[in-house]
Amino acid sequence: MAEVSNKQLLLRDYVSGFPKESDLYVTSSTLKLKLPQGSEEVLVKNLYLSCDPYMRNRMKKLLNPASYADSFNLHSPISGYGVAKVIESGDPKFKEGDLVWGITGWEQYSIINATQAQTLFKIHDTDVPLSYYTGILGMPGMTAYVGFYELCSPKKGEYVFISAASGAVGQLVGQFAKLLGCYVVGSAGSKEKVDLLKTKFGFDEAFNYKEEPDLDAALKRYFPEGIDIYFENVGGKMLDAVLLNLRLHARIAGCGMISQYNLERPEGVHNLMHLILKQARLEGFVVTSYYHLYPKFLELVLPSIKQGKIVYVEDVAEGLESGPAALVGLFAGRNVGKQLVVVSRE
Amino acid sequence: MAEVSNKQLLLRDYVSGFPKESDLYVTSSTLKLKLPQGSEEVLVKNLYLSCDPYMRNRMKKLLNPASYADSFNLHSPISGYGVAKVIESGDPKFKEGDLVWGITGWEQYSIINATQAQTLFKIHDTDVPLSYYTGILGMPGMTAYVGFYELCSPKKGEYVFISAASGAVGQLVGQFAKLLGCYVVGSAGSKEKVDLLKTKFGFDEAFNYKEEPDLDAALKRYFPEGIDIYFENVGGKMLDAVLLNLRLHARIAGCGMISQYNLERPEGVHNLMHLILKQARLEGFVVTSYYHLYPKFLELVLPSIKQGKIVYVEDVAEGLESGPAALVGLFAGRNVGKQLVVVSRE
Prior knowledge:
The structure is a homodimer.
Chain A: E1 3-11, E2 24-32, E3 42-50, H1 55-58, E4 79-89, E5 99-105, E6 109-112, H2 114-117, E7 121-122, H3 139-152, E8 159-162, H4 170-180, E9 183-188, H5 191-200, E10 205-208, H6 215-222, E11 227-232, H7 236-243, E12 246-254, H8 273-277, E13 281-284, H9 294-306, E14 314-318, H10 323-331, E15 338-342
Parallel strand pairs in A: 8-9, 8-11, 9-10, 11-12, 12-13, 14-15
Antiparallel strand pairs in A: 1-2, 3-4, 3-6, 3-15, 4-5, 5-7
Helix pairs in contact in A: 3-4
């Protein structure tokens, strides 16, 4: 019975304020690559791990357990979305060699319990980069799809604004909107990202929010007629500025508020009265409530990827050891495109 | 051709901060009680005038004319909802003696122009107090109906919270919710109002927000399982506290934010992330977009009033001279129930 070394990434302690690489550490344990007799678990080899904004909240000591994600357990590897290969399965839905995506551990090998295994998605189409299932073909892709199509009911010609637009979700929202015939503007935090939005993803306009002393003025420049749809990834000052620029019956999909996650107290948003004046809607969502739409989503997005109508940019960190830098970098906006960590390429 | 004296109420200058009675003044002009030949206007005698929270914004110099209500004109009487009797009509829809409700002037007699006359509602049922058409049977009633039924899709047994609950809109929302079988709690700003909510309007609970140092704690006391529906009339700190107490898939109908109207800058709302965590919605609305539902609304509410299933409390100020105190008092919460001004009882 093979016993292997299993590198793992753990959180040292709960973090308030800005996370540092040293808040995380890599250690090693051993694991038997065999499930016990009668087990309903799934033993997997992890290939790609996904760095996602919501993980910042899991690094906090959360007081309210009703939140959509619990605090990380300090005594086992952190968990998150990933792509993995099944080594052995006690769940009849999976067999050795299957590729899956879903919640797994930040480690080389994971034993996924029977309940958690119910939430794994089997990967059928491997005609695309496998790492895409951490991004455009996984949770972030579904997030873009649900937030844009299900919550915002977009129409051709509408004015669409996306914050954190070069990230895993934003880049796809923008491309969906362009394919539909919308006018699309994105904000991001560096010249490199802004260039990417305009040249690679086909946004009509993009701007670096760090270089805009007056976000309201920036939005008025790009949206002289106002904003119909705002895909909200950042919160705080950007949301406040967007509220001043809504068109009648505007829709805001509340996906995340990454600019607020490292603050002790979130910033105040002052312009909510404009939701009333413009008869507009701000609706929050959590993608897991919409996973029943995944097949419909794949039908839309897989052909578009293969035909080159939708492109995707990843920021790939090599090896579990690069995990702390990759994850912490996400909260500083250091990544360009979807941040992921390669544990193993097969 | 009869020429009459016409008392009028005007705004002295645009107001920032807290309005004072002296910001308004009553003057008198004269008017011929006869329309010119071929006029399409409607000449009315005003009976009841409505004091409504949105009027505070009209007392400001509004920079953004896209707002749902323009600034008052300083050189003519202020305008607002009222009940009036037609003296002469150039619009074939109305004839002498008709009773109407809609936008009119704060004066004894008004000439309503042809465009504005299109928005007048003819009053058919006079088997209820005529003043009700400034409140429960007029714009505020429709506001309660639209915000609760159309925006919140309420279900029996849900937990409903209403701020400014004894006001023209709130008292009706609470009674709608009780009739549907919801658990209903209201907040108001005095013991008298709180008593009214519990004894007269049948709310399950009510509290005086001025006596609650911690609104979050107050809401947790009354809603240990959280809030499904919040009918938002006040904004600011109350909204922030409600956000901490949302149930999954909660709906907030954004009707108004009266606590913010006298501030130079609206307060910051910090807890919007909870809209995402709870997959909840905050939707603003303006009742005028829903006036096509007025007949359906009357069908629901008129029988309920006549059968005593829905009651209504008015705060009646006598005479146009009492207008400044009545209107300014509304923004200080001095009214108990729907504030209106009687110009003439017939």
